[in-house]
Specification:
131 residues
């Protein structure tokens, strides 16, 4: 076999590169509250999940998370008490403001009772959509 012919042969494609491992995601049992997760490669996350009342949202509430991302796990863990207190204060403020808006909207146009008590028929659907 001639070596010159081997040089002209196409090389097989390289093996596919696996995607980087995803960060694991745990959900709080009550869906609400603080959680810590992460790894050395991608960083560490302190996340606090909460809801805000919203008269236009499905279920009349929207879920949010405030997150803090850091590469230094020890610093993030040591900051936990401060971060928890500060973030909880922000959440309480946001929820209080949203509750005022929610109550004002419910007083002006009680959508909850209309949604719960209203029967959906093809005719009522078109009527509600101005059709």
């Amino acid at each position: 076999m001639c070596l010159r012919n081997r040089c002209d042969m196409a090389l097989p494609p390289p093996p596919p590169v696996p995607p980087p491992p995803a960060l694991s995601m745990q959900v709080c049992p009550g869906r609400e509250g603080p959680i810590f997760f992460g790894d050395e490669l991608h960083g560490f996350v302190f996340s606090h999940t909460f809801f805000i009342k919203d008269s236009l949202a499905r279920g009349f509430q929207r879920w949010y998370s405030i997150i803090v991302i850091m590469m230094d796990r020890i610093f993030l863990i040591n900051s936990w008490p401060f971060l928890l207190s500060a973030i909880q204060s922000i959440i309480n403020h946001l929820q209080a403001l949203a509750l005022k808006v929610f109550e004002t909207e419910q007083y002006g146009f009680p959508q909850r009772s209309q949604r719960i008590n209203g029967a959906f028929t093809p005719g009522s659907f078109l009527h509600q959509r101005n059709g």
